[in-house]
Amino acid sequence: MTYAFRPHVPELTMASGPCSIYPQVLAAMGTQMVHHRTDDFVNLMRSVSDDLSALFRTTTRVLPVEGESILGLEMAAYNLVEPGDVCINLASGYYGAGYAKVLRGYGGDVVDVAVPYNTSVTIEQVRAVLDAHPDAKVLAFVHSETPSASENPMEAICRECHERGVLTIVDSVSGVGGSDVRFDEWGVDVCVTGPQKCLGSTPGMSLVAVSDRAWERARRVIAETGRYERSYLCLLPWRSWVERDYVPYTPPISSIYGLKAALDIVMSEGVDAVIARHATAARATRAGIRAMGLDLWVDDEANMANSVTAVAVPDGIDDTVLRGLMDDRYGLHISGGLGEEAGRLVRIGHMGYTASLQKVLTALGAFGSALNELGHPVDLTAGLEAAAGAAAK
Amino acid sequence: MTYAFRPHVPELTMASGPCSIYPQVLAAMGTQMVHHRTDDFVNLMRSVSDDLSALFRTTTRVLPVEGESILGLEMAAYNLVEPGDVCINLASGYYGAGYAKVLRGYGGDVVDVAVPYNTSVTIEQVRAVLDAHPDAKVLAFVHSETPSASENPMEAICRECHERGVLTIVDSVSGVGGSDVRFDEWGVDVCVTGPQKCLGSTPGMSLVAVSDRAWERARRVIAETGRYERSYLCLLPWRSWVERDYVPYTPPISSIYGLKAALDIVMSEGVDAVIARHATAARATRAGIRAMGLDLWVDDEANMANSVTAVAVPDGIDDTVLRGLMDDRYGLHISGGLGEEAGRLVRIGHMGYTASLQKVLTALGAFGSALNELGHPVDLTAGLEAAAGAAAK
Amino acid sequence: MTYAFRPHVPELTMASGPCSIYPQVLAAMGTQMVHHRTDDFVNLMRSVSDDLSALFRTTTRVLPVEGESILGLEMAAYNLVEPGDVCINLASGYYGAGYAKVLRGYGGDVVDVAVPYNTSVTIEQVRAVLDAHPDAKVLAFVHSETPSASENPMEAICRECHERGVLTIVDSVSGVGGSDVRFDEWGVDVCVTGPQKCLGSTPGMSLVAVSDRAWERARRVIAETGRYERSYLCLLPWRSWVERDYVPYTPPISSIYGLKAALDIVMSEGVDAVIARHATAARATRAGIRAMGLDLWVDDEANMANSVTAVAVPDGIDDTVLRGLMDDRYGLHISGGLGEEAGRLVRIGHMGYTASLQKVLTALGAFGSALNELGHPVDLTAGLEAAAGAAAK
Amino acid sequence: MTYAFRPHVPELTMASGPCSIYPQVLAAMGTQMVHHRTDDFVNLMRSVSDDLSALFRTTTRVLPVEGESILGLEMAAYNLVEPGDVCINLASGYYGAGYAKVLRGYGGDVVDVAVPYNTSVTIEQVRAVLDAHPDAKVLAFVHSETPSASENPMEAICRECHERGVLTIVDSVSGVGGSDVRFDEWGVDVCVTGPQKCLGSTPGMSLVAVSDRAWERARRVIAETGRYERSYLCLLPWRSWVERDYVPYTPPISSIYGLKAALDIVMSEGVDAVIARHATAARATRAGIRAMGLDLWVDDEANMANSVTAVAVPDGIDDTVLRGLMDDRYGLHISGGLGEEAGRLVRIGHMGYTASLQKVLTALGAFGSALNELGHPVDLTAGLEAAAGAAAK
């Protein structure tokens, strides 16, 4: 039994996701195979399903789709969007902007609502665009925009759309489990999350909640467009899971073990408590960053995400050098910015396992020390005190 | 740290796949996250890539697609089949028969070549259908038909098609790693396998080899059909991986760890040796089954798979009772038949970790004992002796 | 993170102990450190303690001594034997015979009761020696003699000694958890077991039950002999654990995790059920061996151990060749004989994780196949049928 | 497969030892059993042995004794001390003071050299006591005194004793692997360490290096005193390991796996580099503590240990409250003082896995934050800057 190759693993990862995950999840991943067509495995899946429904606060079943999160989001378009459908797409960041392509890919007549990437869309902007496009069929947006560490007002947007009969497609990959999501109460239609962000498990799945309205639309869209109804992108094969506990594909067994271990943590700690822990970690990080004299990237506290914090790179600092120093000397991996934000911001993830005061203090201490070392002195005393103080609230 | 739920894990799984997997793979799955945009992870991926190329015996890169194996197979149709294309589909089992729907789903004009599910397609049949359809663009078949434990003559079929300029789509999910596959030499165009069969890792990925011809066709098909070129089903986003080591999606990190551990075993044992081990396990199982006076499902030794053996359920035995007894008293999970074969056959998997003489003897001993117990006496002495003898050859 | 060295691990170990252990135990061993002076760890130790008391069926605390089992046995002599004390030592095997040296090492005036190593001491022999030595202070014996796979009648011996006021020292290293042990009811004084046999955990500890009488004697012996009262061999430092939950040394934290996981299995399955499982595995093994026409080493069914079975090596077979073949071709490691029995017997362990019908069939199948291969044909049909039949009773 | 009980594991343990250990070690602990009488296991043990010799910088074999570290230290007295032997015992802390009892327990005529527990013994004091007792046979001392975080000048003391023919017994449980130890060059006679401190593995073993002089003395002492020569405390049974690779007891197999994984880290990083990493972590911790305006417990930088740092509890702070706050809010477990130092100091371990700048910053950040919270403001900016600066040197 010889390992010819093992990756170098950083001491701690607090990046845009995945971050370092729960040890309980890692332990669960090592469980031997249980064949997916046994009662034992089906019972495990049912239990995962119950936990996911509790997490999304829905009575529907959340689909455990295997593939990266973008798969679940593309499924939404494949099943809900017919050529010519007016689709409103809110773009407050890279992922939001990118989704317009998916909608267009399925023939959507896309109305873009774009705001700068350091702020969020307001409910007033949403109402205005809905007023201007009373024929809109679908509105899509990103709940938690990981690339810019911002959050859109999911509740207000979804309630507004629901009232108007516009279906919502919500990318909450880094939202669910870290921020409040009430699928049924808010009238959400499709909401996608991943196990590798706030749940603290491993990447490779797309967890997709689908409302009854969305199921209905899917049936019609597939029939009318003639899209392949057994496609990996089609929701319909998943009816067998919803209706009779039959997962349509060989499930990713080990990932299910990890997900279950993560959900056990969430259920035993409580969904509200886990969300509060993320909010606390975010508040502490922001307080610390500010008290250290640094600037947050997002314009307003109310628009900031619970799972990740974006910090403006101070003038005179090269973010590549900064992050390299953090990797090499401080054993802490964080993320840079994407696209136009490359070089302008760094992102510190506090999600799942890393959503803890200790991890936040570690990140602030290492980050501030690295800045000091690079000739940009910061007030660590104020930073750590502010973080601990914010966490105590 | 509390586990509220853990599945009951059988002592041993020798089913249609996944079977019990290598302990080294299970250990590797517990490795902490390395962020996918780090050099460490990219180096790991490169190493996985080199191993996969060696396994498929190709100089091209095998794509580590995340999602069940059917995803990789559907990608083949999405990228290679235009509406109206004549597509030959060989159906010697459930999976083969099912693929006709995928081809039709993408507009293929499908020519079915069907044979009974207990035999294989012959090269003569293939030549005949190719002669009859000189305009065929694509020929698809299953290399190793897990549901009926049979194998089609991949080398002859692929060489024939390659000469005639017909692209091949090969489902070798339970073939690669257990039977010989020479992607470049045989002129294969798309070949899909999964980590959860002969590689002895965990399900959740589709490993897709693509020839230069297939890449070329894909570019044209996507352009001409207007199919969404950033779809999860589209091959083109994977060019970034092929050309500049950039995986287009967040990879399933833990599954990659498991796959690497499995490939380490294959590389250290040697590809030929691993295939020989599968062949030996299959030969031993068959010899044992026959010597116990039982019937194999597949008509001819030459058509039998290396990864799984199908045994005809003896008259008077209820396969549900038989398999339940094996689960409950013998701690060994095996599979039944699918569809029309339900109740008529049981399937014993000997793949990856379970492709060993010990595991085969365990399976034969438990299977024979269960039959004895159910009133169908078998000659275990002859069975085990024949198995051990066949393995010694 | 690179492993420069990993051992080759056999597919299955069914030796004299340790054998292959429970996967749950292996998983638990990977838990991160909890400092031993925290409430969390003390609570874990208390829970282990409760389980051990339930296992030994005693209201006293079983001491979790760290060191090999021989340590616990030497502690018995250090604390209970004064120079000149008449000590009866029953020797029905290597371990029993060897203990005379320990008793003499502490000044004991040893009366040896020796029987051939393929049988057990009878209660009549014990009564006779007790009658002949009314001044005996201590009687020592091995409950389950692993080297010869035999068992002495622990209940009768301990009850007899208890009535006469003779303290008993019982080596039940491979007995507790596999055979019935009722520490309080039978009036045992010191009973030692290890986690690596019937409990299916990892070696490195000596689990020592001590009666009130033994504690009393220990206090007197230590005081009168002037033996170092803080020695690692002295029981007295362990009073802090008994009286106030304070383990006197840094405990072997990982081994405690493994032990707890093993005890969880025992408690959840039930002590009686686990013992019955061992008895079944032993019965099945013996029935199979006999039906294969082979000879058991121990003279009488009533004297055979539940945790291991000794088989006489057939004439003309070299046990080294036989065991080497089993290692190399069948992936199953079993043990040979010790001392004079080297070459004359092989031992198959069925303890803890390997005490299952499946593992017994695997062992019989591989063992019989290896014998066949070496030119000593055996009736596997009869063997496996007898084993399965014996298990069904 | 259900865990009824799992301990709560703190996010991070930086206590007096064990601290949080290397993930590689945790992973290795989950390896299935390899029987100790197989070539595979013996080869593993030989490899462990080679690594241990390299670590202690000796050509002799270091004994892998199973049991807590105090066992190895008691073995030294059992084997080297005859009744009436003049034994010099240096006491600069709890462990050193306690060893006088062990020496007396074996009849030693002990000469105590005591210094306050916040300083170290000087070589001048050692010379003076050696001059005053030219008949001394043995000199014992603690290299790294974990309870007070101090270090005695091992090289000077051992060289001096070696020249005078006085045998040295060195408790370097928290020294080896963190501070320089050159067993052969310095003429040390017995040196004991444990896997659970600077090696970053799990507790449960005593690693004992023995010089030729010590082996010679042991043979004579055992013969002359009539001590039981097969005792668990006797060195002589270990000759079988030294001379012919035969471990005299069933080894703690899983602990050996963990130890090997830890030694792989040491060997691949290099012994000097690992020691330098400990020195750096210690220097950084001390610089940070001082810059935060707090007092170190030990009188002089030169006397401070590499593996742990003792901090004087500031006036007005209750150490129980402080450590409880760190446990509960900061997820970091550290140790308090022992005996008279209880309440007066806290101890932060930086050993093995926790000997890293990141972990030191985490500890300083959490510790300072907790003090702030309790109304004792500290200068974290200065503290973290000083720590990072000291590490950069």
From TrEMBL, chains A, B, C, D:
GO terms for molecular function: alanine-glyoxylate transaminase activity; L-serine-pyruvate transaminase activity. GO terms for biological process: glycine biosynthetic process, by transamination of glyoxylate. It comes from the Bacteria. InterPro entries: Aminotrans_V_dom, PyrdxlP-dep_Trfase, PyrdxlP-dep_Trfase_major, PyrdxlP-dep_Trfase_small, SP_NH2Trfase/AEP_transaminase. Keywords: Pyridoxal phosphate, Pyruvate. Residues 27-337 form the Aminotransferase class V domain. Substrate binds at residue 347. Pfam families: Aminotran_5 (PF00266). Its cofactor is pyridoxal 5'-phosphate. The modification N6-(pyridoxal phosphate)lysine is found at residue 197. Belongs to the class-V pyridoxal-phosphate-dependent aminotransferase family. This is Serine--pyruvate transaminase. It comes from Bifidobacterium vansinderenii.
